[in-house]
Write a structure and sequence with these properties.
The complex is a heterodimer. Helices cover 34% and strands 30% of the residues of chain A. Chain A has 13 helices and 15 strands. By secondary structure, chain B is an alpha+beta fold. The termini of chain B are far apart. The chains are: A alpha/beta, B alpha+beta.
Chain lengths: 404, 508
């Protein structure tokens, strides 16, 4: 009995020692980590250029501000033949181990996108340290490294600026889509839909102050600006939507939260309508065995800005304005569809997917030739806009101003 | 004092012999008072008194002496000369102006009486005497509760005297079914231990178990109810208390009404209540005195339990293993704070927790007069200066502080002791295995809690095994009119507590 007890306690002690002997597997102290906020990938001369933006937490969180202190971020980049090698090679430059879990954005060079992004994304999707919920954006007419290392006056961390203004722009302007890595990969895999990405470029020469004739002409440093939507076919970049087409794209894919529509009323005057809510449904019907798509948009808006002398107190004017907005939206949508059909031949809207969802049998028949069918797909639009409010005032005061 | 046959030694007939024996046995202890009075009225017979100074009511003694003296001279006494006077019964009938009088025949009982504050009266020529209950000694009196305080509710707390304590309970339960048994435990100390319960409500199996376990105690001395607790608890090797203790008479009364058994020990204001269950340690008497919504605060205490238990270990686990779990801005600010801190997060947390425990211990043990010094050193030097010097990060100080505060919210101090131990174990697990370690620790803890029993009652009742009716008064407290039954985990014969309906305006 006593012997048994001794054996048991010996085993217990050994088990505990065994646990302790393993040490602290995968333990890493916070101050030994270089937190990567943004990654950029370019291709130069057939080699990858991997860049990583690393924050200096002490500078980001420091309350005693002071522009002359060290920079809050440092962007490192290396060239290598494969991506993984590049990431590991980065550690030869950085004093700390790179930590990728907090990546906010992945910036891809345009050339990477033209060549196909699948190899790049496989690594980032595979690695257990990387969370696939960061935004993927495309550098337009600039290298990813340039985009990442751009100075931003309002944000200490450029990667954060990229991340935040992407979300803001998607919500308030609508010509931009914020796509996360997992969404992108899901779009690559799903049938009948091609992925898209947001593009970011550098806007130079923006002027601050009163501009033009003023005595002080502050030249702003170049700024980052989100521009257009990039359309892919499989994993290769096909081309860019224009701004209007991007808005049309947002309507079709029901990503539209809020935007403004402006059009002429009178000779030079303009009227601006703010869209505050929009809901899109896509219906597919079979006509003579061929699919046909109907895009229905139900939108609500407010009158945002009126320069001309229209009588907003008259319901008829409002009805007319509503029709105008509808036409406008329909125009955006049709131009986006046309471009995707004729130029890119890429079903970025996911019409194929909605065929599959509404009529799986038909999709079985057409999916083999979808690339041929899509460019000639008939897309009808059905827009319904309701204007709800005209703002604080009714008619504009502009027409009543004293004439000189 | 035993003779050869192990029988108590009987008293002698001679008063002098008895006195000599007592004085000799007590080693001439100076607080023993022996007094002889010659009674003229009873044919010059000698009457002796024995008592211990300090344990007896001096007023009574002097009163008794006075009446003895008066009668000794034979004044004002209706003596019937024809009858033969038997001195002892005579004294009992006419002279002892006190309620409790017993007869004593042997030295064991005599010593027991003297040493508990009773007065022994012996008469020359008789081999027996009287014990008069003259107990009275200085005590603190009934004072305000200092450990388990409430905003609304009785202020009284138990004191060190068993009789006061039983009176405090009896004043709350005015019922003939409130029974009190007393026994002496401790071969040397002969400490009085009272067992109180309400006959007809109490769980008889628990009561039998209490008797059995108390009978088994064989020890030289009981100085505090904690001694009893350790000798009768179900499980020694657990950090959790399986016997409830309280200084509040109203808590004890409530426990008795639920069908529990109270164990009162002479010489301590802490009363034991069995059986105890886990959730009980999160319940304050005030939960029942404030309106029912106040009972939600029990949730707060339960949450505090988890914070006090887990905050440092989860902090260590997340900052050293799972940095991806935190929001980016948060990780950035924690990382900024950790810049330049020389210790690993785990060591930092351990050091700070350890320091806090030292402070806490010092706060209890130190002489009252040096109190301010401790708080200055604790707050300023350790909190402020350690951060300023870059030895620990402010985040760790915050975590340790919240842990410290939450560990004080429990109405029962006994529950904060296991947390103090387990916290360190969990920090160790977190430092070695991250959250996986923390959760393995928690699962082990949960299993352990479920194996515990208190006097046969599962410790986690009524949560596991679950009893839906008892949930009304476990984590929440439902309005009083809904608490129809006594807790079901106790097997009382009479479990109906009340038959109320929702209060409403009287019918017209």
């Amino acid at each position: 009995m006593n012997d048994m007890k001794r054996k048991a306690s010996f085993l217990l002690v050994m088990a505990v020692l065994l646990l302790l002997a393993t040490g602290c597997w995968s333990r890493r102290e916070l101050n030994d980590l270089a937190i990567v906020m943004g990654t950029g990938i370019d291709i130069v001369d057939g080699e990858y250029v991997v860049s990583a933006q690393i924050v200096n937490p002490g500078e980001v969180a420091s309350k005693e501000g002071g522009g002359d202190s060290k920079s809050a971020v440092a962007t490192y980049s290396v060239r290598s033949t494969t991506l993984f090698e590049g990431i590991r090679r980065l550690t030869t430059l950085t004093p700390r181990r790179l930590y990728f879990s907090h990546i906010q954005v992945l910036v891809l060079g345009e050339k990477v996108a033209r060549n196909g992004v699948k190899e790049v994304l496989d690594l980032l999707f595979r690695d257990n340290e990387v969370r696939p919920d960061f935004y993927v954006i495309l550098a337009k007419e600039a290298s990813a490294l340039q985009i990442l290392s751009m100075y931003e006056p309002l944000e200490k961390i450029p990667a954060n600026k990229l991340y935040k203004s992407l979300e803001t722009a998607e919500g308030a302007w609508g010509s931009i889509v914020a796509i996360q890595l997992d969404e992108f990969i899901a779009d690559l895999l799903r049938e009948g839909v091609e992925p898209v990405l947001a593009g970011v470029g550098i806007k130079e020469d923006m002027q601050m102050g009163t501009g033009g004739t003023g005595p002080v002409k502050n030249k702003m440093p170049p700024l980052l600006k989100y521009q257009k939507i990039a359309v892919f076919k499989e994993d290769k970049l096909q081309g860019w939507f224009s701004e209007d087409e991007s808005i049309g794209f947002s309507y079709i894919t029901d990503r539209m939260d809020s935007t403004v529509e402006e059009f002429a009323c009178g000779k030079t005057e303009k009227i601006v309508i703010e869209i505050i809510r929009s809901k899109t449904t896509i219906k597919t019907v079979a006509v003579n065995g061929k699919p046909q798509v109907e895009v229905s948009v139900v939108a609500e808006g407010n009158v945002g800005e009126v320069e001309c002398s229209i009588d907003l107190s008259n319901p008829k004017t409002i009805y007319k304005l509503e029709r105008d907005v509808e036409k406008h939206i329909s125009g955006h949508i049709q131009s986006a569809v046309r471009k995707a059909q004729k130029e890119f031949r890429s079903d970025a809207f996911g019409f194929g997917q909605s065929v599959y969802q509404s009529n799986p049998k038909m999709w079985e028949k057409v999916k083999g030739d979808w690339d041929e069918i899509f460019p000639d797909l008939k897309v009808k639009t059905n827009i319904d806009v309701k204007l709800r409010r005209t703002g604080k005032v009714g008619n504009s005061f502009i027409p009543f101003m004293k004439k000189e | 004092m035993k003779n050869r046959e192990n029988q108590p030694m009987p008293l002698f007939c001679s008063l002098d012999e008895n006195f000599e024996t007592v004085v000799g046995e007590l080693g001439n202890s100076t607080d023993l008072v022996t007094r002889k009075v010659r009674m003229d009225i009873l044919d010059g017979i000698e009457v002796g008194m024995l008592f211990t100074e300090g344990l007896v009511d001096k007023d009574f003694i002097s009163q008794f002496m006075e009446s003895l003296m008066l009668h000794a001279k034979g004044h004002n006494f209706p003596i019937d000369d024809e009858r033969e006077i038997e001195p002892l019964p005579f004294m009992k009938d006419f002279l002892l102006t006190i309620g409790g009088v017993e007869e004593v025949y042997d030295f064991d009982a005599l010593f027991n009486a003297i040493l508990t504050g009773e007065t022994v009266i012996l008469v020359e020529g008789y081999s027996y005497g009287f014990i008069a209950n003259t107990k009275k000694w200085e005590d603190r009196g009934v004072q305000e509760a200092s450990v388990q305080t409430v905003v609304r509710g009785a202020r009284e707390a138990f004191s060190e005297s068993l009789r006061t304590n039983t009176a405090l309970v009896r004043r709350r339960i005015n019922n003939r079914k409130l029974w009190l048994e007393t026994r002496q435990i401790g071969k040397m100390t002969q400490t009085n231990v009272g067992i109180m319960y309400i006959k007809g409500v109490v769980d008889e199996t628990v009561l039998a178990e209490v008797h059995q376990r108390l009978d088994r105690i064989s020890i030289d001395g009981i100085l505090e109810s904690g001694n009893i607790e350790e000798l009768i608890q179900d499980e020694t090797f657990t950090p959790f208390p399986t016997i409830y203790n309280t200084e509040r008479p109203d808590s004890v009364a409530a426990g008795l009404l639920e069908g529990r058994v109270a164990i009162l020990v002479d010489g301590t204001p802490i009363v034991l209540l069995v059986p105890a269950i886990f959730v009980e340690f999160f319940q304050s008497p005030e939960d029942y005195y404030q309106r029912a919504d106040f009972g939600i605060l029990r949730m707060l205490r339960l949450i505090s339990f988890f914070i006090a238990l887990l905050a440092p270990s989860v902090y260590v686990a997340i900052t050293t293993f799972h940095q991806e779990m935190l929001q980016t801005n948060l990780i950035m600010s924690i990382a900024a704070q950790r810049e330049g801190v020389p210790f690993p997060a785990a060591l930092e947390a351990l050091l700070m927790e350890f320091t806090f425990e030292i402070l806490r211990e010092a706060g209890i043990r130190m002489p009252r007069a040096v109190g301010p010094a401790i708080s200055i050193v604790g707050a300023l030097v350790l909190g402020e200066a350690a951060v300023q010097a870059g030895l620990v990060s402010p985040a760790t100080v915050i975590v340790v502080s919240i842990t410290a505060i939450t560990s004080f919210v429990f109405p029962s101090f006994s529950m904060s002791i296991p947390i103090r131990f387990l916290r360190f174990a969990l920090i160790g697990l977190a430092a070695s295995f991250g959250l996986v370690g923390v959760f393995v620790g928690l699962i082990a803890l949960c299993l352990h809690l479920c194996t515990l029993r208190s006097f046969g009652i599962p410790y986690m009742s009524p949560l596991a095994p679950i009893n839906l009716a008892d949930q009304k008064d476990a984590i929440f407290r439902f309005p009083i009119w809904m608490l129809h039954t006594r807790p079901h985990f106790l097997r009382q014969k009479n479990s109906v507590r009340e038959q109320n309906r929702e209060p409403e305006p009287g019918a017209k």
